[in-house]
Amino acid sequence: MTVIAQLDHVTKTYGQVVALDAVSLTVPAGVTAVLGPNGAGKSTMIEILAGLRSPSGGQLKVLGGDPTTLAIKARIGLTPQRTALPWRLTVAETLDLIGAHYPAPIPRSVIVETLGLGAFLNKRNGTLSGGQRRRVALGAALIGAPDLLFLDEPTTGLDTDSRNQLWSAISAVAAQGRSVLLTTHDMIEAEHLAENVIVIAGGQVAREGEIEEVIAQVGLHLVEADVPEGTSELTFATVHAERVERIGSRVRIYTADPDATVRALVVDRVPFRGIRVDRVGLEEAIRAITATDADAPVSPAVGQITEKVAR
Amino acid sequence: MKHVFRHALAHARDTMRMPIYWIPALFFPLLFFVLFGYTTAHRLSQLGLGSEYVITPFLLFTTLNVTLVSLSAGVAADRENPWESRLRVLPIPSLTRFAGRLFYILTFNLVSWIPLLTLASFTTTIKLPLYLWPAWLGGVLLGSIPFGLLGMAIGYRFAPQAAMMIANIIFMLFAFLGGLFLPSDQLPKAVQPIVPFLPTHEYQQIVLTIIGRADRITSPGWTMAVLGAWTLLFALLARTAFRRDEGVRYG
What we know:
The structure holds two protein chains of two kinds.
Chain A: E1 3-14, E2 17-28, E3 31-35, H1 42-49, E4 57-62, H2 70-73, E5 76-79, H3 91-99, H4 108-115, H5 130-142, E6 148-152, H6 160-175, E7 179-183, H7 187-193, E8 196-201, E9 204-210, H8 211-218, E10 221-226, E11 243-247, E12 250-255, H9 258-267, E13 273-279, H10 282-293, E14 305-307
Parallel strand pairs in A: 3-7, 3-8, 5-6, 6-7
Antiparallel strand pairs in A: 1-2, 1-4, 8-9, 10-12, 10-13, 11-12, 11-14
Helix pairs in contact in A: 3-5, 5-6, 8-10
Chain B: H1 2-16, H2 19-46, H3 52-80, H4 83-88, H5 94-123, H6 133-142, H7 145-157, H8 160-177, H9 199-210, H10 220-250
Helix pairs in contact in B: 1-5, 2-3, 2-5, 3-5, 3-7, 3-8, 3-9, 6-9, 7-8, 7-10, 9-10
């Protein structure tokens, strides 16, 4: 396995707040998504790996060296969480300024074509839409031909078209053999782009590994069925559920033991129809991991009834 | 060195596209000269004397304004922009970017003198020999470096609005007490003892010495010592403010 970054007991504190708590992990080459709730320490980890912040303790290596040295900086690219562009420079000027600092930059024309920047190449960054700015920021991160690209929430706030365009561009970058480490709150994005995930909760690594592996480790299944409206919540009190959600007549039961859940529904004579059993997706797996590991309750989604049911 | 020029060029482009910034920077000093200096300069010309003695404080005033106020506001504003994070991961030392900004500011100073010198050249008599012009203008430019360091210290320490206000207050105090508005012997008696200790006064003395019109209150040795001490102090303040900012934002 090719390793792009290694952290050994890396700690970061801001006064009394511990943002990263003795984090040790190995990041493989490829596309890795760093996931976790707000304030979990994702951006801090990216900033430390990109050499923007110093750890309070521990050791780390990025691409085999210290990320604050010029030699390593020449091999990394970054788009910070807030879109970072000089507002009064044009897109072309911005790309040229950044590209000139690297030993073997990607030609500007290639970046323009890959990211579809041609239509607004001579416009000032400040006049662009949010999606266009994100693409320019990605272009500025890419133009140095980095071996490792850090993307901190690259598509937050974008509409579907802009998001899809950016996903295509990131996938194209990965296809060129460059590694990408991205943070996101969008699990669809993580599943679409990443091969591996690192789940951070409370400043610690809660899980890491391939997406399927992490989901399997959680071992949570979803039993979904239609029940008559008005069915009492108490009906589901004995179905071995981690959590139960009701959306109209549809009930969603999250359980570690789906067989036992289905048996309980039958034994309790719950009048269900259209039952479906499946393994949970990444979103539910992350929710389960961070709720357990951070010891924090999961907020119910809007419009849903969520209830923790005792086994 | 090419990266210094690149960053200076980026700052210059940025400024050119912000007329609200560069129009006042170029024309306020001109307006001040027309209102408060032109009559005296013209009278000196009629007496057969060179007007450079009157022009000099206005040049210093312009330069001080750009170097101290504009630089502090620019640095403070840049700190607010996440673009700074992108620049920090470039494979160049931080010093290159600072040098680029300083180079840009010094160049902008040169440009900011054009309206004032053009008006003064056509309407008054500058009697300075041509060979002394580089020393005269070079003195104005190089003498502004300590104020650039102070501008950086303010810019790295305060938020943009506060930086602008603080820099303006310091600028006005230094300009007034240093004798840029009034000759130092016409200042209130209470403040006259501190005048020889002020960097603006000694800055002016250096430039006036070059054109042979120093007021002889202080010796050249004193002037160099005072300016050296202020430069050291402002450099320390800039360094401390920069380190503190790095600690707060990137520590």
